[in-house]
Amino acid sequence: MATLKQLRRRIRSIKNTQQITKAMEMVAAAKLRRAQGRALASRPYAQKTSEMLQSLAAAAATLSHPLFEQRPVETTSLVVVASDKGLCGSFNMNVFRQLERQFEAEARRGVSLYPVGRRANLYFGKRDWTIDGKVPQLGDQLDFEKARLLALELTNAFIAGKTDKVQLMYTKFRTVASREVVIEDLLPIVPREDAEGAVAGYIFEPSPERIFDTLLPRYVQNRVLQAMAESIASEHAARMLAMGAATKNAKEVLGNLSLQANRMRQAAITKEILDIVGGAEALK
């Protein structure tokens, strides 16, 4: 059984930990507000751009652009977005576990990964996965240059025929308490099912080739950037909830330890009083 001195030492230690978790919760809440605003504000542009290009993909029958090319899928490039830091609950493990379930040992042969974030690089670097590229650090702020370079690498690999399909795997932000790990197709750009005849209302100026050469790389970059923004917002939400739960648990543990320490102190005081009374009685 722990002594009173040991209990007091544990109480001080837990109080210090509680202060840290409370501070981390507040920092995560402040970062979440900014990250959530960026993720939600960029969704309409990303969605409309995707819908427009899927409609224009119906023109691929007359316009041969490499990013519209659909071929038998033998190799797949998968961008996996995780976080740089821990202490965010099961945020990272949810991504990793779903990926492990999605691609069993046999299915991994034709899959190459592009891990984004320090945790993803550490996790997959120690396992039997093919790594074709990576982003070592994601950061708390959106980095357009990282998204541009990764999008360029993915686009070049697809055009060169090194991969037949490119997908994005990230945690989509729903609400502060709700997040969802999703896998979305990035390349090739496939026509919408209801896009037949949709291109008839479009007038291409100066030319379809020049428009697609300019618009498609930006589209890929924007999709990668959106995945990063969603993941960063989800990470801060997960960390805020995890640190909030840790602070609450520390409070409960402190209550139990304080009660135990008070009982031991009261028992020691009672024993001393009994010793004094006993000694006084013996002197009579």
Automatic annotation (TrEMBL):
It comes from the Bacteria. It comes from Eiseniibacteriota bacterium. One of its GO terms (biological process) is proton motive force-driven plasma membrane ATP synthesis. PANTHER family: ATP SYNTHASE GAMMA CHAIN (PTHR11693), ATP SYNTHASE SUBUNIT GAMMA, MITOCHONDRIAL (PTHR11693:SF22). It is a peripheral membrane protein. Keywords: ATP synthesis, Cell membrane, CF(1), Hydrogen ion transport, Ion transport, Membrane, Transport. Belongs to the ATPase gamma chain family. The lineage of its organism: Bacteria, Candidatus Eiseniibacteriota. It is found in: Cell membrane; Membrane. One of its GO terms (cellular component) is proton-transporting ATP synthase complex. NCBIfam families: ATPsyn_F1gamma. Pfam families: ATP-synt. One of its GO terms (molecular function) is ATP binding. Coiled coil: none annotated. F-type ATPases have 2 components, CF(1) - the catalytic core - and CF(0) - the membrane proton channel. CF(1) has five subunits: alpha(3), beta(3), gamma(1), delta(1), epsilon(1). CF(0) has three main subunits: a, b and c. This is ATP synthase gamma chain. The gene is atpG.
